[in-house]
Amino acid sequence: MTSDSAQHSQVSTVSPTETAVDFHVQVRLKSEGERLLLILPPEAEVPGAASWFDLWQQLKHRLNAGDRFWQANSIVHLMAQDRLLDGQKLQEIADALSEVELQLQRVYSSRRQTAVAAAAAGYSVEQQPPSYSLNQTPPEPAQLMAEPLYLQLTVRSGVEIRHPGTIVILGDLNPGGAVIAEGDIFVWGRLRGVAHAGAGGNRECRIMALQMEPTQLRIADAVARAPESPPAQFYPEVAYVTPQGIRIARAADFSKTNVLLNS
User: Fold this and answer.
1) In terms of DSSP bridges, do strands 216-219 and 222-224 run parallel, antiparallel, or are they unpaired?
2) Which of 111, 119, 196, 235 is deepest in the core (most CB within 10 A)?
3) What is the span of the domain harbouring residue 34?
């Protein structure tokens, strides 16, 4: 039988004056193919809105108790749901996973602040629409459209950002990085990775960048690659869909182009 002191030694954040793990808070870790899902309980479904301390106790218990069913250096996707996590909390989660040879790679969240914090920390991010329990009233259909996601950072190689609305990046999109939006994509910098606007099928969406050097552009189901020879001079450009496929125009001429297409 495990003593209370031995049990507390497994939870690094528990002090002698604090209570044991609250098992009403269910932090889950499960295998899905070659990855692991770390699932935090949604605030809307946990009575009393479990504190970060409760979640931290549960996480440490899950990682340190029982047999480890994962391979060393397995990739972890954090299902944060509606939990508000800042950079420090994400780092604490990553450190706890690293201690048991797991690597945090992607964060799924319905909270804008969590998505921004995760992207700023260098993780791939997918912002999801919020879910609603049976005792909550969902918003009107007109309010379901996701607000733009603003990120002041450089999207580095290996990082993927997904959002069910428009994405605005104040920085660069590097080769090997990807930005996927159901709305428009605006890169206030150099676009050199993969940009996919209108991911839900909207061919009216646009991709704009101060310097357009993409690995690949996609708008809805239309795909285009950058020319083999880069232009001698760069200027802000807009990519859009025509009956002939994706076209790129100078931002200054884009309104004129639209007038000609619709005339």
Assistant:
1) antiparallel
2) 119
3) 1-139
